[in-house]
Amino acid sequence: MDVLLLSRLQFAFTIMFHYLFPPLTIGLGIVLVFLEGRYLWTKEIIYEQAARFWTKIFGLNFALGVATGIVMEFEFGTNWAAYSRYVGDVFGSALAAEGIFAFFLESGFLGLLLFGWDRVGPKMHFFATLMVAIGGIFSSVWITIANSWQQTPVGHEIRDYVVNGKVYQRAEIVDFWAMVFNPSTMDRLIHVWLGAFILGAFFVMSISAWYLLKGRHLEFAKRSFTGGLLLATVSSLAQLLSGHSNARMVSEYQPAKLAAMEGIYETENSTGLYILGWPDDESETVKYGIEVPGMLSFLVHDDFKTPVPGFDQLEETWGRPPVWITFQAYHLMIGIGMTFIGSTLLACWLWWRGTLFDQRWLLWYFVFAVILAFVANEAGWVAAEVGRQPWIVYPSLVNGELTGGLRTSAGLSEAVRAEQVLGSIIFFGLIYFLLFVLWVTLLHQKISHGPEIDEVDENDEYPSMKKAFE
Amino acid sequence: MDWQLLWFVLLGILLAGYAILDGFDFGVGMLHPFAKGDEERRIVLNSIGPLWDGNEVWLVTFGGALFAAFPEAYATIFSGYYEALMLVLGCLIFRAISIEFRSKRPEAWWRSTWDSLFFMSSLTISFAFGLAVGSALIGIPLDDRGIFRGSILDQIGIYQILVGLLSVSMFLMHGAIFLVFKTRDDLQQRMIRWTRRGFVAFLTMYLVVTTATWLWIPRAVATFEHFPYAWIVVVLKFLAVANIPRCLKNHNYLQAFFSSCCVIAALVFLLGVALFPNLVTSSPVSENSLTIYHAASSEMTLKIMSLYALIGMPFVLGYTFMAYRTFRGAVKLDKHSY
């Protein structure tokens, strides 16, 4: 196998594993801030107990996010050295900002969050929780800026520079704020955040629904579930708008990515939207497609008759990403998103009617829906990153000519050989398999153990007195 | 001072911060097997429990800053030291998760497995960082593009191994002094004995490596002609090293810890002096070395990053101070501990 394919596989594998954790900790961070805030406000002990429980789960996920995140930072240099030389001036500065403005904040207060319960007062603890949550959000800001710059690069110039008397080219920053607020940053950032909120909310609902089904920690589970439900409903609806805005942005700046997402091989007068399908590169058609005629034209151009360009017009200039993967990942993400809108609205309606917690089938759905939320986050990443191939830094079209891009194949490390990469894939494969098993096992254990709440709390008139005598 | 030199210095500060802070984490990991029974082991583990993650961020930020300020050096070093870095990554992962996972189940086999992984990864990383420093001083074969052209065998030799042992002994001493603050009674007495053993090991390796550097790497000393005031640091470093046994004898561990921090900082400083103006030294063809001027980003980026540092560093020091203050003193185990 060749170094390029192996390095791409290695990157995809390690980042997809890493990306299980950051959205979850961002989402859970919001939940923690909410719970502790409620506790400070209402002084109801149940919120503190809930916060303590979710903090333990947060800690486990956070540790795995940190451990697998360092790998990502290293891989830019180990496997993509030519890319690093080309973009270091721009991409590197965003990455360094993540370190200094986000990671230090998160980790500085993490100790307090996890171990500080009995050492600092509730206000200070709330502050620490808030700082950790903000740190997570800052981190997503900078990493999304860095990634978005690769997708829609602006604010830089391609300039010559000299190493040992020879001239090479690289991207250099000329306008910092233009780089930060490049055309895709805000759209993508909001999309990432909402994805994280949805995941965090579904995670909380999953565990709460399970307690409800098992008849355990009922008061805790009901409050957690409804809080999660509100966050999930609002975020899912907002995600629809955000997704639409994203698709328009992609159609403008990365037309070949949109063509791959929607499987547009040939430009037609009016472009339909596939609900499902099986893109086939050989026949250049989408087989077994279920299509809404003219819908994509409408979504992109507010008009059913304006064509969205296909590969027949785009490929020569922009190249063609792997269509099948991009198409399926994109449709999977959207399909799950739609399911979430339907199911959360239904649950809200039932909650309003007061019968939500009697619907066992719906609670079982929510127990497992968190897996869909993970899948949707991952699929979104796949659609975004596979869809930009063959470019590692997307070019822009100036006066009909592509400028400034870098092909993925040109970003590789020259010093690295295939067997080294293969070795590292096996190495990380083993470690990550172990981590995955441990993660699931320990989560299961923590969930089985449940929050530290006296089961009789709800009927006990003097819970605090009972506590005092313990 | 130009921007490139400023960032060379700032990277040195990040590296020194990392070595001082995560250094005692490694030492704690290496001393962990000498704690007896589950309670003592938990005490040792929890001495760094709330702190290790923040300490590791210094490395992450060092990596990010190297990428941004000197992308050529970042690309060359990271792709050149492929196997070594994968090993380091594996150790960082195992160290992190052994801290996190150990307490999660009560079975003896579970805990002893994570205990040994914690020890092994701490030891391996300490050694690997030393190897890397040794290799940076000796140099690796680069071509005229600054790309590593060699194999892993070009990165390992007697000198590198000696520096690796120096690094192990230094972190062992540093960690032992740290643990004296964090433990009580019998365990503390044992750690006090380890501070002395650690110092003896460190002193031995320090003298060996200093002599070896003097003999084998003339360019490491040559820079002193450009920076005669760097001799002041050499003198201060000798004083700091000499101060450690004095403090250990008087049971003044705070000063001993401060001295060992100074020793680590001074060694990082001298590493910088020895490398300057190179970031990556090429050997045998020294003209291919990547200097801080070849390898740097544009001045615009360096200026932006300086602004980051100016805004960010006071906060960082604030968080760090606060975290260490909150968790000061001997470890008391409670239900939130690992």
Topology readout:
The complex is a heterodimer of chains A (470) and B (338).
Chain A: H1 3-18, H2 22-42, H3 45-78, H4 81-115, H5 122-151, E1 156-163, E2 166-173, H6 176-180, H7 185-214, H8 218-253, H9 255-262, E3 273-280, E4 285-292, H10 295-301, H11 311-318, H12 323-353, H13 360-386, E5 391-393, E6 396-398, E7 401-403, E8 406-407, H14 418-449, H15 463-469
Antiparallel strand pairs in A: 1-2, 3-4, 5-8, 6-7
Helix pairs in contact in A: 1-3, 1-14, 2-3, 2-5, 2-7, 3-4, 3-14, 4-5, 5-7, 7-8, 7-13, 8-9, 8-12, 9-11, 9-12, 12-13
Chain B: H1 3-31, H2 37-48, H3 52-69, H4 71-80, H5 82-101, H6 108-138, H7 158-182, H8 185-216, H9 218-222, H10 230-250, H11 253-275, E1 278-280, E2 290-291, H12 299-326
Antiparallel strand pairs in B: 1-2
Taking strands numbered 1, 2, ... along the chain, how are they ordered across the largest sheet of chain B?
A: 1-2
Low-confidence stretches of chain B: none
Mean pLDDT of chain B: 89
Largest sheet of chain A: 2 strands, antiparallel
Written description of the protein model:
The complex is a heterodimer of chains A (470) and B (338). Chain A has 470 residues and is mainly alpha-helical. Chain A has one domain (3-267, 309-449). Chain A has helices at residues 3-18, 22-42, 45-78, 81-115, 122-151, 176-180, 185-214, 218-253, 255-262, 295-301, 311-318, 323-353, 360-386, 418-449, 463-469; strands spanning 156-163, 166-173, 273-280, 285-292, 391-393, 396-398, 401-403, 406-407. In chain A, the strands form four sheets. Chain A has a two-stranded antiparallel ribbon with strand order 1-2. A two-stranded antiparallel sheet of chain A has the order 3-4. Chain A has a two-stranded antiparallel ribbon with strand order 5-8. The model of chain A is unreliable at 455-470 (pLDDT under 50). Chain B has 338 residues and is mainly α. Chain B is 75% helix and 1% strand. Chain B has helices spanning 3-31, 37-48, 52-69, 71-80, 82-101, 108-138, 158-182, 185-216, 218-222, 230-250, 253-275, 299-326; strands spanning 278-280, 290-291. Chain B has a two-stranded antiparallel ribbon with strand order 1-2. Chain B is globular and about 55 Å long. Chains A and B meet through α3, α4, β1, β2 and α14 of A and α3, α4, α5 and α12 of B.
